[in-house]
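Review form for a predicted model. The reviewer records the input and the model, then writes brief findings.
Reviewer: anonymous (R2)
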Amino acid sequence: MKAIFLKGRFLKKSILNILPSLFLAGFAFVCHAETVLKVAYENASQFPNYLGDTSKVLEKPGAAVELVKFLEQEIPDLKIEFYRYPWKQCLLKLKAGEIDGAFNGSFTKARLDVGTYPWKNGAVDDTRRLTTMSYHFYKLKGSPFSWDGTKVSGLNGKIGTPLAFSIEGDLKSMGLNILSAREIQVNFSNLLRNKVDAIALQSVTGDYHLSTKSGLSSVEKVQPELKNKAYYLMLSKQFYEQNPELSEQIWDAIAKLREERLQSLVESYFE
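Model under review:
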């Protein structure tokens, strides 16, 4: 009986000695656990920011995608998972907290109900933007439609726009009627079929289609630019509330990466 008692006391003492080590090991695991950031972007090409009219993340995905991926190198224990959806769906999933981030999103007051932006002194902090892009009108050659930088003329019908893009609100505020389409190709088709008098597109997208897609030789770009906008990696309200310090760190890293890497990344897609 004495031997059994001694053995039991020894076992109990051994367990007590091991418990602190197990606790510390578990604590270390928690401290070094990965944070997975689920980020979505549009499933249509926006050369050179992201490539491919597909829901797949390509091996050569685009400059903006590569820049966001570099967050893993800037922030320890952060892992990026990419998803691609139509832009409107990206925003809906962001609002629902089904994804943690979405890019490229320009700032609108309406989108403050959808997600969060980098903020400073009561306003969006454009120093922590991901990139900058302009919008231009595109029209059929010979069309009377024109834009002088302030107002349009020669407009008899509607302006085509991508669905759920911020330019919709800009054009409506100018008193213009719009016809939105989910796909860029549909916007060009509407223009070619005279369903719209012009289309308003991000210039990187419009120029890319004019230079690579067949059947658009009758389309031309209208000068001057319509709008110039800063674009951001938006984060979900849910992610920000749970990870406020990490969220600010992510936006700080985006600003750093934009200055250090974006230009060379963009140039690599033109080589």
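Findings: The radius of gyration is 25 Å.
Further findings: The domain at 35-131+231-268 is CATH 3.40.190.10 (D-Maltodextrin-Binding Protein; domain 2).
Recommendation: see findings above.
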